[in-house]
Amino acid sequence: MLKIALIGCTGNLGAQTLSIVRRYPEQFSVSALVAGKNAEKLAALCEEFHPKYARLASDGHTMSEEDLDALYDCDVALIAASGFSGLTYTLEAARRGKRIALANKESLVCGGELVTRTAEQYGAELIPVDSEHSAIFQALGMRRDAKFSRLVLTASGGPFLHFTEEELKNVTAKEALDHPTWKMGPKVTVDSATLLNKGYEVIEAKWLYGADLADIEAVVHPESIVHSLVFFEDGAALAQLGYPDMRVPIQLALTYPARLPCAPQLDLAKLGCLHFERLPAERFPCYGLALAAARMGGTAPAVMNGAAEVAVNAFLAERITFPQIAEAIEDALIRIPRGDAESYEAIAEADRAAREHARRFVGVE
Ligand code: MG
């Protein structure tokens, strides 16, 4: 019986994780649940799954050592919390040498150096849950230290892929939330529409697989069937394919290196053609900004992320336009001095400064 601490249990990823637990009650149990602010849903999940420990993050209590011991008394910590707050959970799990099924992007985007160093120091395993990084993990023979020459992340391109710059000025939050192939939370769905998400995934790949930024690229693949590819020195490429279904990478992160029945297999003849095209980075500046932040290094990616979280919320609240999301990020990156990102405190301070700056930029004090 594998004991799962599910951190971020009320969102989309949490729901899919729990559907796996329901399907295999003999294999999995839920030892702890953490929710953001949905108390009602947390209570209902506690009633169903009987975790030994549950926590509502928004109640503001700092966790005691006893709380932490109870939360991390598990075989796998699945970090599905969204946003910057996921980083503290990932770091604590790393310090405790846990297997970490990592679905929180911000942990590696903002704290990649610190998280990977801490995991190595305490013998924690980092298993990617994001579909692209899981695909790469599988193509590398389920190893993070395998040799390769190039990583290619696939991108659906989001709902505005072929929009002109003029058209992008008028897109609404509702249109941005209507993703063509994946069902996800609001922040990551908007990030998919701006292609910021793909920039985040380049940074995650850099830390997960020790890749140079120059050896990671993204290509548009509208069908979301090929989940990413690895190229090797001899020209061979390996990819992982499947219908877009997050249960597959979630379940593999739990059962690795074993597999269990999960999703329908591809019907290749029915599928017909698969398409690939260049990523139109010139119309989606968020992608380039993420790469620029990664090249700047230190706390720059944390600044980018803090500004992005504020800007995306402002866009969802119809306070700013779609192109202004990129403007808010760029402004924060230019104006907030970058420091080194060797401690959590330094990263959190960069995040705080970026949010404060971005709030002024979008007109919310
Ligand atoms: Mg992804």
Structural features, described:
47% of the residues lie in helices and 15% in strands. By secondary structure, it is an alpha/beta fold. Among the domains are: 127 residues, Rossmann fold, CATH 3.40.50; 119 residues, Rna Polymerase Sigma Factor, Chain: A. Strands 3-2-1-4-5-6 form a 6-stranded parallel sheet, sandwiched between helices. Strands 10-9-7-8-11 form a 5-stranded mixed sheet, covered by helices on one side. Helix 14 runs parallel beside helix 16. The radius of gyration is 20 Å and the shape is globular. The mean pLDDT is 96. Magnesium ion binds next to helix 6.
Query: Which residues sit in consecutive blocks of at least 5 with pLDDT less than 50?
Result: none
Q: What structural category arises from helix and sheet content?
A: alpha/beta
Strand order of the largest sheet: 3-2-1-4-5-6
CA-atom Rg in angstroms: 20 Å
Which molecules other than protein and nucleic acid are bound?
Answer: magnesium ion
The total strand number stands at: 11
Q: Which term fits the overall shape?
A: globular
- Content of β-strand: 5-15%
Instruction: Estimate the helix proportion, in percent.
Output: 40-55%
Could you state the order of secondary-structure elements as H and E? Answer: EHEHEHEHEHEHEHHHHEEEHHEHHHH
